[in-house]
Amino acid sequence: MERFGIKLNNGLLALALVSFVFMAYPVLSLAEKTVDPEKLFESKCSQCHPSDRPKSVRKTPAEWKETVDRMQYGNGCDITDEEAAIVVKYLSSKYHK
Ligand code: HEC
């Protein structure tokens, strides 16, 4: 009986460990999805013209905002407001006047 008890406890311990891994998994994969501004820019801004087009110009933050707004609302770039703000920030810091 005692041996059975020990085995049962090991089983529960294993179950607890497995559940922990499964519970932690979504949290870990969520962290992986944290946006990389450069990847976001490359994927969103290379669909109609090469991403070299924005990379070859220098603009002030206000001008980048204006340009990205135009891509989003005028040209039909499939980007959310939140993503657009990330791209504007990225371009403003890397390709500024
Ligand atoms: C749906 C197609 C499309 C997507 C996606 C797109 N663009 Fe454009 N882009 C255009 C078109 C069309 C032009 C030329 C007409 C114009 O300037 O609006 C252009 C021109 C440009 C120019 C040159 C004109 C200028 O104002 O300097 C830049 C820079 C630019 N795009 C940046 C971007 C950025 C940054 C993104 C990502 C947020 C992006 N584009 C995504 C269609 C697109």
Structure description:
With 97 residues, the protein is mostly helical. It folds into 2 domains: 1-34; 37-94, Orthogonal Bundle (Cytochrome Bc1 Complex, Chain D, domain 2). The protein has helices at 2-32, 37-44, 52-55, 61-74, 81-94. Helix 2 packs across helix 5. The longest helix has 31 residues, at 2-32. 12% of the residues are buried. The mean pLDDT is 87. The structure holds heme C. Residues 44-45, 47-49, 53-54, 57, 67-68, 70-71, 74-77, 79, 87, 91 line the site of heme C.
Layout of SSEs?
Layout (H helix, E strand, L loop, with lengths): L1 H31 L4 H8 L7 H4 L5 H14 L6 H14 L3
Helix pairs in contact: 2-5, 4-5
Heme C binds next to helix 3, helix 4 and helix 5.
Describe the structure in brief:
With 97 residues, the protein is mainly α.
Query: What's the rounded overall pLDDT mean?
Result: 87
Count the strands? 0
Number of helices: 5
Shape: rod-shaped
Number of individual domains? 2
H-E order: HHHHH
- Estimated structural class: mainly alpha
What level of helicity do the residues show?
A: over 70%
Please give the alpha-carbon distance between the first and last residues: 78 Å
| Main beta-sheet annotation | none
Bound chemical compounds: heme C
CATH homologous superfamily of the largest domain - what is it? Cytochrome c-like domain
| CATH-scheme architecture of the largest domain | Orthogonal Bundle
What oligomeric state do these chains adopt? single chain
CATH first level of the largest domain: which class?
Answer: Mainly Alpha
Query: What name does CATH use for the topology of the largest domain?
Result: Cytochrome Bc1 Complex, Chain D, domain 2
